[in-house]
Amino acid sequence: MAVQIENAVTSGTFSLDGGTWDVDNNVWVVGNDEECVIIDAPHDAAPILEQVRGRKVLALLLTHAHNDHIGVALELAKAVGAPIHLHPEDMVLWSQVYPDVRPDRFLADGDVFEVGGASLEAIHTPGHSPGSTCFLLASEGTVFTGDTLFNGGPGATGRSYSDYPTILTSIRERLLPLPAETVVRTGHGESTTIGAERETLSRLADK
Ligand SMILES: [Fe+2]
Q1: Which partner for 103 in 4, 83, 86, 158 could form a disulfide, CB atoms 3.0-4.6 Å apart?
Q2: 3-class secondary structure for 137-178?
């Protein structure tokens, strides 16, 4: 059976640099009937656990450590007995939420996670945050981009620890070369494709 990709949306707030904003976040659950991985842990563990449906959770993969993506990471990891994976360069953000706890494992570019007979590959895409990481599920023609690439262009880079030239380089060098039909599943909002976002990015370059 092919690996399944399921989505839940949770609502809450994102806070950084003294501001707070209301946000809806996507959670992605990838797996088969027996096992799965969870991508991101925003706001509310209950709907995420509902999506897991008692399956074995192999890993909780974090696209980055903004508080709207990791708010229930510890609660969720404990509930499902899975290790938390985060890129070490996002510890500066993680520590603002969990000053006394560390993630279980540090992600590195090229890490591969096997789940349900498929492979998820970590792609380090700094810019939105220093440790931002996408997860490519090549067999299903999809990539989970967190807040690095949205439907409509790059993620925000206006706040601390973000950098606009860096996110553009990450997107151009690591994401846009993927096949045009690759479905981009984002941290907020609707999905898109690499082909559509190539067009968005080329318009940005014209400015
Ligand atoms: Fe973010």
Answers
A1: 86
A2: EHHHCEEEEECCEECCEECCCCCCCCCHHHHHHHHHHHHCCC
Q: How far apart are the first and last CA of the chain?
A: 46
CA distance 142 to 116: 15
Residue in the structure block whose two tokens are 């509902």: 50
Q: If you write DSSP's letter for every residue of 98-118 in order, what string do you get?
A: -TT---SEE--TT-EEEETTE
Question: How far is ligand 1, taken at its centre, from the CA of residue 33, in Å?
Answer: 30
Tens digit of each residue's pLDDT (9 = 90 or more) over 81-114: 999 999 999 999 999 999 999 999 999 999 999 9
Q: pTM of the predicted model, to two decimals?
A: 0.97
CA of 148 to the centre of ligand 1 (A): 8
Report CA 97 to chain centroid distance, whole Å: 17
Q: In this structure, which amino acid lies at residue 60?
A: L
* Neighbouring residues of the ion ligand 1, judged by CB less than 5 Å: 66, 147
d(CA 202, CA 101): 41
> What type of residue sits at position 93?
L
Domains of the chain and any CATH numbers = 4-206 (3.60.15.10)
